[in-house]
Amino acid sequence: xxxxxxxxxxxxxxxxxxxxxxxxxxxxxxxxxxxxxxxxxxxxxxxxxxxxxxxxxxxxxxxxxxxxxxxxxxxxxxxxxxxxxxxxxxxxxxxxxxxxxxxxxxxxxxxxxxxxxxxxxxxxxxxxxxxxxxxxxxxxxxxxxxxxxxxxxxxxxxxxxxxxxxxxxxxxxxxxxxxxxxxxxxxxxxxxxxxxxxxxxxxxxxxxxxxxxxxxxxxxxxxxxxxxxxxxxxxxxxxxxxxxxxxxxxxxxxxxxxxxxxxxxxxxxxxxxxxxxxxxxxxxxxxxxxxxxxxxxxxxxxxxxxxxxxxxxxxxxxxxxxxxxxxxxxxxxxxxxxxxxxxxxxxxxxxxxxxxxxxxxxxxxxxxxxxxxxxxxxxxxxxxxxxxxxxxxxxxxxxxxxxxxxxxxxxxxxxxxxxxxxxxxxxxxxxxxxxxxxxxxxxxxxxxxxxxxxxxxxxxxxxxxxxxxxxxxxxxxxxxxxxxxxxxxxxxxxxxxxxxxxxxxxxxxxxxxxxxxxxxxxxxxxxxxxxxxxxxxxxxxxxxxxxxxxxxxxxxxxxxxxxxxxxxxxxxxxxxxxxxxxxxxxxxxxxxxxxxxxxxxxxxxxxxxxxxxxxxxxxxxxxxxxxxxxxxxxxxxxxxxxxxxxxxxxxxxxxxxxxxxxxxxxxxxxxxxxxxxxxxxxxxxxxxxxxxxxxxxxxxxxxxxxxxxxxxxxxxxxxxxxxxxxxxxxxxxxxxxxxxxxxxxxxxxxxxxxxxxxxxxxxxxxxxxxxxxxxxxxxxxxxxxxxxxxxxxxxxxxxxxxxxxxxxxxxxxxxxxxxxxxxxxxxxxxxxxxxxxxxxxxxxxxxxxxxxxxxxxxxxxxxxxxxxxxxxxxxxxxxxxxxxxxxxxxxxxxxxxxxxxxxxxxxxxxxxxxxxxxxxxxxxxxxxxxxxxxxxxxxxxxxxxxxxxxxxxxxxxxxxxxxxxxxxxxxxxxxxxxxxxxxxxxxxxxxxxxxxxxxxxxxxxxxxxxxxxxxxxxxxxxxxxxxxxxxxxxxxxxxxxxxxxxxxxxxxxxxxxxxxxxxxxxxxxxxxxxxxxxxxxxxxxxxxxxxxxxxxxxxxxxxxxxxxxxxxxxxxxxxxxxxxxxxxxxxxxxxxxxxxxxxxxxxxxxxxxxxxxxxxxxxxxxxxxxxxxxxxxxxxxxxxxxxxxxxxxxxxxxxxxxxxxxxxxxxxxxxxxxxxxxxxxxxxxxxxxxxxxxxxxxxxxxxxxxxxxxxxxxxxxxxxxxxxxxxxxxxxxxxxxxxxxxxxxxxxxxxxxxxxxxxxxxxxxxxxxxxxxxxxxxxxxxxxxxxxxxxxxxxxxxxxxxxx
Length: 1348
Prior knowledge:
α28 packs across α39 and α42 runs antiparallel to α44. It is globular and about 100 Å long. The strands form five sheets. The chain has a two-stranded antiparallel sheet. The chain is an all-alpha fold. The chain starts with 17 loop residues before the first helix and ends in a 17-residue tail after the last helix.
């Protein structure tokens, strides 16, 4: 698509002659009139007949007709204007072009939707009426217009933001390039066109393929005429020759220049060209053959179709690889040469072909297994569907099938067959690779080992379940159909895989937790002991082997003897089942020696020789393969009388090792590979036959015995494939099964009683007040640092400001955790992990940062001449990075141990958010003690060394050295407080022993002293004692600025009031939200959904406005970009509240005045739609402020700092007028809504209720809504009220604004909890228990401030 689609005019250097111009315009206008006449006739026909109104196809078609009429009219109008007026105003031209672009982009989208409707009508006819409804069709038309607008409207916004206002009043030649001339728009247009092209083409291709698959004989029934056939063939052949000529030229260029041979990008590109040449050539040959010979031999057609499919699937894979190479070249340029080598590129090309073959070759195998030989000598019309007609292939191709249908016995059997095919394929591949690569990457080896061991463990479990199914069929025949259902069989299969996965996956977690990242990029001989080297994995493996051996053999013995006893009083079927169990036992015995052998090797590994083990394993592998094949055939092929075609192949568990001291010769290697490949094809042919037999006979679909057997076959296929792969890569050791038992340490915390409500509130107020005070001082220090360039170049101040920022983060998070421990008590584990890790990181950073500052002070005093060389800004930032890295190295292992030892369910649970309750492993406890001791020793040694060196230097120096010595002493005191974190657990345990009744007090005191008090010292050391810093910090701390500001006391009191109110409201709102989400009863009630939306909205609004309030006192001015974000969120949420209240009033009106229709009107889905409409109504008018500002203000304005008010950011006078107009509209609509609903409810309540109490309660609820709404509506008139009060009290502007802020923005948020949290009986029942922090739970254990 280009602009020519919307405007046929082309900008040329000269104008047409008058005659030519008239001719062109007449032709265009006549065509336009003719087309519109036909389209109008279609529209008239549609309107006159009701039958078309209910058909989605005709609705989409008529929308296409109307859209095309608009598009043709506008483009013809632009064409005529280009010859008559020539130039238009940019505003008019922009409007015409936008509409033309909308309609132009609508056309392909509409056609794609019509193709989808046609696909549904043909391929899913039974669901067509449900899917393609009139309502959804109209929604789809709206979506088409929305998509087109999303593609085009950014052009308008970019033009408004980048062009001056004079441009929109100028005259231009009306083209898209002249109206929207920014280069960014052109790039965006190209990207959107590519996306549209791909999406629409894929839609049409998918529809064509699916509709063609429903009728394979379309080409046979409807032949083209001779002329049309010749034309099509000529076009295709010419295109094919042209493309091949171009590709051949590119290939010739590549071959002639050696420079391209070493570049992976060009190698991949030339492979793509060769692949496409083959694909184009073959597809054209097939196309021409379909018109000339018409039918060809199946064998020849197979060959052509397979190569075409290979090359077709190669193309996207090749393009993906080229994209990856481009990404590496741009994003990882330093490693590009190492990663993208020629050898790896050739390997990648081989992998592309292997992937395509793996996708396509099963079609050939299934066809060989299911079709008679005569089929391959017959003649067919050469299509994929006619050559590979099996329904399983079609389903496999579309990835819409499931292997197992409704049979119970044969579901498991087919699963086993497919499993064996996968296992055999992977093992043959790895067997071949062993003679080429020898060693592979650890990550690839892990990927191969995991499925190998999974399937190895699946086999005995599957056989055990099959034995259990046989036992139920013989011993409990009357309940067999109830117990062995298809659903339960699938559950059993899932349990088998889950059991094997739980045994294997922990090895990966232990590997990630114990090995460095470099290990995953190294190359090893691929066997288990070289990858999973941890002793925990070895011990876990022993336990899992014993567990599997005991469980499987107990199951087998139990079922065998029960069947044996039942056989005495039964017929031959019971004897047959008994014998089947015996054969199963023998098969398990042939597999279980790998467990016994493993234990034997552990006991005697000092005696046995490596070479004898290797030879034994090698011979054991092939012996087990053949015995397993013969055994399963004898069980199910010779013994099953229902269908003699069933032949099963159970790939037994293999323990493979290739610990040979030398490599095979080339002849030996080829011979072995030929043998393995032949075996693989043979077994896959047999398995394909089994799958075909299973699918062709419904009798097997409901029998659990065959379902379990199919699962066994499928499992063994995976196991055999993977173990043979590992045999190929292994060299030095035997591959054994992987099982992991997670190591999970436990940590018991003594339970104590919770604090009383008064004590809890007091403690939280103390902690919050300290946090606010310290962070206020720290915020002033950061502001001082940012305002003065002199501090930017001093490493001392950089380290100091990093310490301040780190302490602010630590204090805020630790306080938050302290409050959460009293308010919510337990929270989700992932959220707790995030808070804990960041808190612990910042806590550990503080002593390390102080040690770094002490070292800097020592260098400045003791090595002054080299201070400038050693303490540079770059090295300072490197030191800060090392501090974070050292802290991360201390805490991240806890996370890895947690992932390795805890089950997945733990991460979905809720816990008391303390370190000991989350990181419960004994290893984490021991690691923490060791790291604390190491940090304590290193940091104290650093401090003592620097202190004594400075102390000795001070004896021979001036007072400056004394000051430095005192600074070090203060550092030591601060460091002493910070390092109490390392010894805090020991001191707490001692105090618990001495004062057993004061657990809560001891923990709170320790929290204040260890976590909060050290943060007081930083401002004292640098904010008061350092002369340079003190000179600047006092003016900001005490607010001594040139403009009129509140005094420090007034400012502090105001901020404290606001923050305390915010904390109380946030606590109440958090309790309301927690109450809502913990009780399903509220999820289906529109009233509570709207209420909780209002609570969340108010919480956001309150947080943002209070943040702006506090920032206005700390920084006074902030960046315009950040201010824009804060103001827009505040305005959106402020406007949401009254509209949400009006919606709640309407819901109450419907519930009381229309009670019979309330459930139909007020549904949950419509409630969410109303919430979306609320946000749209509130966002749409005010977001225009941002667009106008972007269009009118320069870019430099957004880098300035301003006092963050709406009128300071959005300064255009038009915006103020627009704001007043919308305020009036909002005020009128919401106020009228409230009055109407209030009066209607009051009258209805009086008429319906027999008691005055009910009527009075409904009236009071609406009155409270009215009060809250009236206070919210004050935001619409607050500017006018402020202006009047300022005229009356000219010296009280600050007090007026503060009072206005409290009344307009904060007080309305108090009423929400009153209306629903106190007055609503249903909500109040659950609300109390969470509001009072569960203080009724006297026996509940307590965890106070966490151990950071």
